[in-house]
Fold this protein.
Amino acid sequence: MNRNSKLWYMLFTMPLFLIFLTVVVIPFLIGIYYSFIDWDGIPSNPKLFVGLDNYATLFQDQRFLDSAWQTIKFTVFALISVNLLGLIFSLIVTAGFRTSNLARTLLFMPNLIGGLILGYIWRFIFTDGFKQIGETTGIDSIFFNWLIDPNYALLALVIVFTWQMAGYTMVIYIAGIQGISEEVMEAAKVDGANLWHRITKIVFPLLMPSFTICLFLTLSGAFKIYDVNLSLTNGGPIHTTELFAMNIFNEIFGYGNYGLGQAKAIVFFVIVALVTLTQVVITKRKEVQM
């Protein structure tokens, strides 16, 4: 790369670097500083340095621990449902049916709806819609307001997240399936491999790059979910669906505990980073080349 090329490279990358530095790096460093102080967010009030006290306090905060457990459960269920449905959808729409293009469009459309709007739509379905179906059919043991039942509210959140993300992961799996050589599949058929063996022994191993991407997106999205959580359940009933992000937001802007809230945010960042990086390393090792 000659000198002129380097100058042009720096010219075009510098604005993006400055934006990243201003929007991500600097606020992150300020957040780390805030995690070591006791402050209520009012500029005129003093910021008291408390060291690691905020980190010690958060591990004694039962509400935070409960939100962590709820987030783990939600992430596990969402990880399975989103990727299982996305994979099934991708296998269906690549099977050569006449309506495949229409099916792709319809299945991807939920991802285009904003999280807040999506939550309000499904809030109406789970409250008024389910109640009406239960009264009409008499199956009120299933069709009732799920959002007021602690045993069903988290499941409702999983369903909405799955409905939103399954179509997106489907597109990634479709790209992976279309990248598999037809010659390999035809050779497997000639050798007598049935549909199940072709899927499990050929398609799945060659789809590992797609699995890596989809699992990463699902994990990070499930851990960081806030908008759907806010509009669908708002943490209820009785904080049983208050996930990580909502707990941190409420701690900072609801209770004015900026230091404790930032300490929770830092712990949250470390957990998400460790989990997603571990997942990427594990799935990357299982990828195979054509």
